[in-house]
Amino acid sequence: MNPLAELARVSGVVGAGGAGFPTHVKLDAQVEYVVLNGAECEPLLQVDQELLISASPRLAAMLEEVRRALGAKEGRIAVKAKHQEAVAAAERAVAEYPALSVVPLGDFYPAGDEFVLVYETTGRLVPQGGIPLQVGVVVLNVETLWNLAEAKEGRPVTHKWVTVAGAVASPGTFRVPLGVSIAEMIALAGGPTVPDFAVLNGGPMMGKLVEKLSDPVTKTTKGLVVLPATSPVVQVRAKPLPAVLRQARAACCQCQECTDLCPRRLLGHELAPHKIMLAASYAGGPAAAPITAAFLCSECGVCDLYACPMGLSPRRVSQALKEELAHRGIKNPHRSAPAGPHPWRAYRRVPVTRLLPRLGLKPYERPAPVREAALTPHKVVLPLRQHVGVPAEPVVEVGDKVEAGQLVAEIPDGKLGSRLFASISGYVAERTPAALVLTREPQGRGGQR
Ligand code: SF4
Ligand code: SF4
Predict the structure, then answer these.
(1) What domains can be seen in the chain, in order of their start residue?
(2) How far away, in angstroms, is 259 Cα from ligand 1 center?
């Protein structure tokens, strides 16, 4: 493992903009391109832009170091051209590094999807079901690189940048200790402005509905979007699967709009959501229709939140199919490289300017600048699995005193995972198979909160 990968491993760095893939595994490679993903394609989220504006020199220096460590000939910073301040900051910062450049992206969704981004920045097509490494590319999220820079200065991952947006009084982007609650984050943004609301963890397109406001911020919480419970963005997720399938059978007219606009299809993948709808609804549900092309679905939400004129959800059907296939032990057989992108891809990309009104999000398109997080959490909850791989193994016991930045859970020997560090100074109040709970005060001595 190269020294930079080792630094990422010991510091608990994982992909901060996606599923939380351990960065040390990604960096243990030799590639041709390192792409910094600052596309921030989810509407309303602003972490990447804010970091590029405020910390481009630091990010460029770190990107250059990663590029050298991975033997890459180029490092490219991908950022939407419309974010002019971020583009200008990045361009100034890369000026002193001949192997680094800025690639301005169009304002379409999902520009930040790794497969889409690799094509837009290098012209290479990642094989179906594959990873960018197969075409000589490593993609890093902006905050992931920022965390690497922190690690280099001796600080492991203990905090997270999070945008809180939508129906809140004062949208903002905050840096908070891992493990604070979603309720605390919404309070930081001035609280909800509608009485009956739902919260998405992530953006409006790919975020997941938050079940409990007591859930913690983790290494992958990039944004929290508060929306009225009646919002179509909420409704499409809240509908029970049997209702989704019933509606698919009753209302899918096989117009193929979902397939025509599917971003993976437009890259040449064998995914055809209209066929998935047909088979799953008429064959008696996902269990009877193991359509393996569902493995290729990125769950981007273009089909259900933008394309389908009938308000149906090929994404939900694909999700159900993937679960059924996994249950049956069936693996993705679609591994070939696409022959080429669809000839009309450039005209079928989804413009964000049309997406926002379609989702009813136009009123929430407001700045969410970086603000000081006026927060002194008395308790944080650290899930042992907030990354791809196996849960981390606690190395502390209930009652132990811990300092912020102290290792509290280790990667099990020989496994894929990530280390965890205390995000506040205090005491270990609980240790369960799923999480560690830290409190400022020792429990049982008047410190319970
Ligand atoms: S867009 Fe909607 S109605 Fe048309 S094929 Fe797809 S799921 Fe069916
Ligand atoms: S969610 Fe829909 S549009 Fe997106 S990749 Fe899956 S099938 Fe295609």
Answers:
(1) 3-152 (3.40.50.11540), 159-231 (3.10.20.600), 240-337 (no CATH), 379-439 (2.40.50)
(2) 8
- Does 318 sit in the ligand 2 pocket, CB within 6 Å? yes
| CA 226 to centroid of ligand 1, rounded, Å | 28
Atom of ligand 1 nearest to the CA of 259: 6
Reference 202, options 184, 225, 229; nearest CA is 225
Predicted TM-score (pTM) of this structure: 0.94
Mean pLDDT by 10 residues, the chain (449 residues): 95 92 96 96 93 97 98 98 97 98 97 96 96 97 97 98 97 97 97 97 95 97 96 92 89 95 96 89 60 92 96 93 90 89 94 94 94 90 97 97 98 97 98 97 60
Distance of CA 404 to the CA centre of its chain: 25
Residue 76 C-alpha to ligand 1 middle, in angstroms? Answer: 37
Scored b (16 or more CB within 10 A) or e, 201-212 reads: bbbbbbbeebee
Residue type, 56: S
